[in-house]
Amino acid sequence: MNFDSFGAFLAMGGHGPYVWGCYGLTLLVLLYNLLAPGRRQRRFVREQAARQRRSGGP
After folding, report:
1. Are 16 and 24 in contact (CB under 8 A)?
2. What's the predicted TM-score (pTM) here?
3. Residue 2, by phi and psi: left (phi above 0), alpha (psi -120 to 50) or beta?
């Protein structure tokens, strides 16, 4: 598919909002999948440290 201008490329024959919306949503899901495990691990370590302090353990 050839486009006459960058604006035509972004519009994609009237389908641009759907196409770019799907790309944006995919990017958000991928970022979440990359960042969520690290956040969960930090929270888990924090909770375990607090639990260990409360129990008086080493």
Report:
1. no
2. 0.68
3. beta
Mean pLDDT per 10-residue segment, the chain (58 residues): 89 93 98 97 96 83
- Structure-token pair, residue 18: 């759907």
Q: Tell which residue, 1, 43, 13, has the closest CA to residue 51.
A: 43
**Gap between the Cα atoms of 10 and 19, Å rounded:** 9
Residue 50, pLDDT score: 95
Q: What is the 3-state secondary structure (H, E, C) of 21-54?
A: HHHHHHHHHHHHHHHHHHHHHHHHHHHHHHHHHH
